[in-house]
Amino acid sequence: MSAATDEPALERYPAHLHAGYRTATRRLRVSAVDEAAPDVRHLTLVDPDGAPLAPHEPGAHLVLAVGPDVRNAYSLTGDGFLPRTYEISVLLKRAEDGGTGGSARVHALCVGDEVEVEGPRSSFAPRHDQRHTLLLAAGIGITPVLSHARAVARWGGTAEVVYSYRPGRAAHLEELRSLAEHPAITLREVSGAAATAALLAERLADQPLGSHAYACGPPAFLDAYVEAAERACWPASRVHLERFSAPELDPGVAFTAVLADGERLGVAPGTSLLEALLAHGRPVANLCRQGVCGECVVPVRAGEVEHRDLVLSDGERAAGDRMLSCVSRGAHEGAVIEVEV
Amino acid sequence: MSTAAQRVEPAFPVRGHTARLPWPFPDDLDAFRYSVNVEPARVVRRTAAGSWGAHIVDLGGEEYGAIMAERRRILDVDPHRTRLMPGMGPACWDLLVYYLRDLAISYPHVMELTEDGDAFHWRNHALGTDQRFVVGDASTLPYDPLTFLGREIPDDLLLVKERDGHLCFDAGLVTFAAAWSVAFDVGMTMTEIHNPVPRLTREGVTSRAEQFLRRLPVDQVYRRVNWTLSASGSRRLDVSLEELPEWGADIPRLVRDQDWGRLQLRIEVEHFVRLPMTGAVTFNIRTHMTSLEEVRQIPAWRRQLAAVVLELPDDLAAYKGFLDYREPAMAWLTEPDRARPTHDTHPTHGQEVPA
User: Fold this and answer.
1) Residue extents of the structural domains in chain A
2) Contact B266, B292 (CB under 8 A)
3) What is the mean pLDDT of each successive set of 10 residues along chain B, which is 355 residues long?
4) pTM score, two decimals?
5) Helix A193-204, helix A219-231: angle, nearest 10
6) Which CATH class name applies to A255-339?
7) Where are the domains of chain B?
8) How many CB pairs under 8 A join A and B?
């Protein structure tokens, strides 16, 4: 009966005809490897056939397949304007610091090697109508901030950059200093936790109306940033941040997920809904598994959810129609959540 | 030497107006309600009269030149048809680059684009455009990038971007609006723009459409078809509020004269692309017109259009503007079916009947 409704297509075309819009999984070639700072490797990637690469928003990241079943996201340092190269800077995270070998594999890449990538993906984009930009970075958090600063310089806005680093270990300091020769870009450098917190407070209290602020760095830095912004009475909608690691989460309570076809799935403490779904043969796209990237969002039809992610806004949480399956759970012991999976 | 050698191949084969028309209804539809009726773009669809939909931009075949002359005339007399909210400059470049690249691949026999880094060279042989420019440098183009693109393709160009949790119509070049004004609407949220449409917001269509656009992935392109009966009794595409004095008396005159064949079915094909450099989403609209006289030539179309128009609840018919005259107009449209009900199967038509 439905034959007439599902009118057969004569031909199917790809979504984008031009090669410069490819974002699906593909291989790029390493064309240069540099030391951006001690333990920070700067990689330049190009299309093996010389095709232009997909443009991206400032603050976007590229996903690299760094090992079997391991995919890490790295911020792109370029401004995303008609790129011919993608550039990332990767800090070596040693096993004794909780590293799992991903960054070491990136550090092992040589010129000429090919690596599987996906994206770029945008998750830390600037507001298009910002009248001024305050950019704040600590340590390797400089990578998306550099991308933002370059875009501001290209498109003619104004920006102030605050860069907190350990002396002798600052990646991209020279690029930032030369950007700051541009009259629209100001750079402030700082070292040490106390001095950094003081500078954050001072600069957040002294920005023109219409500014948006963007910060990237370790959790302590971001906490100081959010606190300073709050004290300076910034509206939350103008305070943007990107985390590269999430706080430790407790194992949570046991709850039940009712799936789209009515099947009931028990989720034990210490197991995430995502893991339970995957183990049950229900594919759910996922990436960071830390509640940071937003990839594993699932629609929720009913049930009370304890949101433990760092992605959804207060408004989205209040709507109650979605959750990040990697970290969020039933709100209480024995809770039942209906999900559209 | 010979006239054949001098003959210039036409840029576009003549297919005829109805053959390329994006008929807005699925075959078995006889009752229309607003919905989020999106589908993947670049899928060719067959209709009772031909086919459409291979490309994101439908240049209009042999009608391309005439449409573009009208577009350029309007832009020349009324530059306010291009409106940008602050900060939308990069998104307009993003749009221009995406569309020129796409056009050169879709229509290689008339359009060419060469790139050398940021230096582009665009040639449109159908309109005689030959322009070198540097992407991002407005001084290298004769118009702003949105207007430059708008003078090359028939689509109305609309860009939406998220601000404070709302999708906002923050840039547009619109010369063929159906009784709205780009200068009035630019900067509004999707909800504000669609509030006047009956049922749309109350029944959640607006918020579902907004969710769809907000989640539109960078690796997919979608389209949607919308329709109405035009507020003008001619092929005129520009029935914007700006030109209301020019067309406002058309329909009352047409109704008075019972001149139903001049009524126009207005079909809008919208394309949604997430532009990767800025995250702006296109809501580009390509408008097609066909007269009831033309629709009447195709039995499947005239029956379906009459059924859909007559079934429509009063509030929607009033919003679309034809509540007052839909019955006599649709009676005229389907008159051939009633007058000659067995025409198609008459066994002895034109033959001698043996005595």
Assistant:
1) 19-121, 132-243, 255-339
2) no
3) 52 84 91 84 93 95 96 96 96 98 97 97 98 97 98 98 91 92 90 84 77 86 92 86 88 93 96 97 97 96 96 93 95 86 44 40
4) 0.85
5) 30
6) alpha beta
7) 11-59+68-81+158-336
8) 112
Q: From B136, which residue of chain A is nearest by alpha-carbon distance? A: A155
Which residue has better confidence, A137 or A73? A137
Instruction: Look at residue B6 in the predicted model and tell me its pLDDT.
Output: 52
pLDDT for A155 beyond 80: yes
Q: Annotate chain A with three-state secondary structure.
A: CCCCCCCCCCCCCCCCCCHHHCCCCEEEEEEEEEEEECCEEEEEEECCCCCCCCCCCCCCEEEEEEECCEEEEEEECCCCCCCCCEEEEEECCCHHHCCCCHHHHHHCCCCCCEEEEEEEECCCCCCCCCCEEEEEEEHHHHHHHHHHHHHHHHHCCCEEEEEECCCCCCCCHHHHHHHCCCCCEEEEEECCHHHHHHHHHHHHCCCCCCEEEEEEECHHHHHHHHHHHHHCCCCHHHEEEEECCCCCCCCCCCEEEECCCCCEEEECCCCCHHHHHHHCCCCCCCCCCCCCCCCCEEEEEECCEECCCCCCCHHHHHHCCEEECCCCEECCCCEEEEECC
Q: CA-nearest residue of chain B to A120?
A: B276
Q: Can you give the C-alpha Rg of chain A in angstroms?
A: 22
Interface test with A, best of B112, B113, B219 (most A CBs within 10 A): B219
Q: In which band, very low, low, confident or very high, does the pLDDT at A4 lie, cut at 50, 70 and 90? A: very low
Q: Which of A13, A56, A154 lies at the smallest CB-CB distance from B276? A: A56
pLDDT for position A249: 65
Percent of chain A at pLDDT > 90 equals 74
**Residue B243: Cβ within 10 Å count:** 18
A247 pLDDT tier (thresholds 50, 70, 90)? low
Out of B94, B161, B165, the one facing A315 most closely (by C-beta) is B165
Take residue B116 and report the two structure tokens written for it: 């050398």
Chain A CB within 8 Å of residue B44 CB: yes
- B89 vs A: CB within 8 A: yes
Residue B53, token pair as written in the block: 């939909």
Q: What is the predicted pLDDT for the residue at B209?
A: 82
Fold category of A132-243 in CATH: Rossmann fold (3.40.50)
Residues 6 or more apart from B287 whose CB is under 8 A from it?
B154, B156, B176, B178, B237, B266, B267, B268
B119-138 residues touching A, CB cutoff 8 A: 135-136
User: Cβ of A321 under 8 Å from any chain B Cβ?
Assistant: no
Homologous superfamily (CATH) of A19-121 is Translation factors (2.40.30.10)
Chain Cα centroid distance, residue A149: 17
**CA–CA separation, B236 and B70 (whole Å):** 9
The answer to whether A336 touches A303, Cβ cutoff 8 Å, is yes
Q: Is the pLDDT of residue A9 over 70?
A: no
Q: How far B312 CA sits from the closest chain A CA (Å)?
A: 20
Q: So what's the pLDDT on residue B210? A: 84
pLDDT in tens, B304-355: 999 999 999 999 999 999 999 999 999 999 998 877 654 444 444 434 434 3
Interface of B with A in 191-220 (CB under 8 A): 218-220
**Residue A60, CA distances (Å) to A73, A93, B215 in order:** 10, 21, 16
* ipTM reported for the complex, 2 dp: 0.88
How far B315 CA sits from the closest chain A CA (Å)?
A: 26
Beta bridge partners of A118: A63
Active-site annotation of B, residues: 224
Is A20 within 8 Å of chain B by CB?
yes
Residue pLDDT, tens place only, A92-120: 988 887 777 889 999 999 999 999 999 99
